[in-house]
Automatic annotation (TrEMBL):
Pathway: Amino-acid biosynthesis; L-arginine biosynthesis; N(2)-acetyl-L-ornithine from L-glutamate: step 4/4
Residue sites binding N(2)-acetyl-L-ornithine per the record: 132, 271
UniProt cofactor note: Binds 1 pyridoxal phosphate per subunit.
Residues that coordinate or bind pyridoxal 5'-phosphate: 96-97, 129, 214-217, 272
Gene3D superfamilies associated with the record: Aspartate Aminotransferase, domain 1, Type I PLP-dependent aspartate aminotransferase-like (Major domain)
GO process terms (BP): L-arginine biosynthetic process
Protein's name according to its UniProt entry: Acetylornithine aminotransferase
Species in which this protein is naturally found: Pseudooceanicola atlanticus
Amino acid sequence: MIPSVLPTYSRAPLHFVKGEGAWLIEEDGRRFLDLGSGIAVAALGHAHPTIVQALTDQAQKLWHVSNLYEIPQQQALADLLVEESFADTVFFTNSGTESMELGVKMARKYWYEKGDPDRIEIITFSGAFHGRSSAAIAAVGTEKMVKGFGPLLPGFKQVPWGDHEALKAAVTDRTAAILVEPVQGEGGINVLPDQCLKGLRDMCDETGALLMLDEIQCGMGRTGRLFAHEWAGISPDIVLSAKGIGGGFPLGAVLATEDAASGMKAGTHGSTYGGNPLGCAVGLAVVKALTEKGFLEEVRRKSALFRQKLEGLVAENPDVFEEVRGFGFMLGLKCKPVNADVVKAAYEELLITVPAADNVIRLLPALTLTEEEIAEAITRLDATAKRVAGDG
Ligand SMILES: Cc1ncc(COP(=O)(O)O)c(C=O)c1O
């Protein structure tokens, strides 16, 4: 008999009932150190007092009104994001997938309004992940994602990650946008080097194609800057955001320049929930905390320390770990045994990690992780490695 919850996930038998910062408490009282944050969602950790306060204050006043009316919390969050980023304008969604959908629509409408309606192609990269909608799976195009779900939304062209020649050949006068994650998450923590992001910017400038970045996982402070592309010193046209921006509340955003957004006039897009008072009150508290003076400096300092200790862990456990990937608090350990077995062994050590492609386990802790918690994470990862290697 089919379970009452549609069985699309294979779940670990863990029942968390409470969260405190970087810790998750199981029903049976065990305290797990959470290096997953709900897959890069709980940017400020679980139950951070500032966002709990923002949520409860707003919940007592007004949860929801339609986007038919002015929403001051939405306005304030948009103003703050515009002030802190490349963007001139923001649309709020409820998830990364919805941000992706709008990104695709925005890029195509841009060219339609410019009188070039055939310019509809969007270039994506192997290893990418942009969500689970029909457009998002078509964008990725792997058999695992698309098999049985056709017909797919046309107009996506996948290029092998790091293959400059293939990319050059793929960009034509039908290219509406190039879509890339500055750091691939699901793909196994693959960092797009700064010079490649600069190269993509140059290519877009030469051809007119829009540079659209999926920062749903790597944005919102995760790499030690509000957005990961800031490291390369470039300015994109469209950025997709979600996950960390709501700190656990389902919130997403599409940020764009005035030019890139120029096709999106009244009536061209909408959402019932996207940008509602409750979500935006929380999002505002999150983004204010991330942009507070000194916060991202601390993320950079602590994450560099974590990475350095992870290098030591890999050197200590060469039969289990091959290398450390990523930067900031968007880190991965490439495993030698099957990564799912390492994730399972970590549960035994009361540690949460997240599997990714390419046999990697991801470490995406709360950005508030302390030095003591970093030391504890290393202790538990080391015990995990010993357990997997059979000498624990
Ligand atoms: C880079 C990236 N894009 C898009 C998505 C889809 O976001 P959501 O699951 O919120 O729809 C994810 C989620 O993992 C992601 O990591």
